[in-house]
Amino acid sequence: MASSIEECNKSKSRLKLDSLESLKEISSQFFEMVPVRRMRWKDDDAAMMVACPDLQVELLNATVRHPVCHDFPPALSYRRYFMKLLIQKLEAQDADVADEVYEAYTDLLSRPEDEDETLCFKSYALPSGEYVSLQESVHLVSQGTTGLSTWQAAQHLAEWILENPQVVNNRTVTELGCGLGFTGIIVCKCCQVQSYTFTDCHSQVLYLLSNNINQNLGTDKHTSEFKDSSNDREKRMLRKIRRQLSQSSNGDNSGYSDNNADLDSITKLADSDQICTCEDEDLTIEPVDLNLNPEKWGTDSSSLLASYRHDSRVRLCHLDWEWVKEKQLEELQADVILAADVVYDLSIIPALVLVLKALLYGGANSNRKPRAFIASTIRNEDSRDAFLIAMASEGLNYSVLENPKQQRYFYDRSVPIEILEFYAT
Question: What InterPro entries has UniProt attached to this entry (predicted)?
Answer without folding.
Answer: FAM86_N, Methyltransf_16, SAM-dependent_MTases_sf
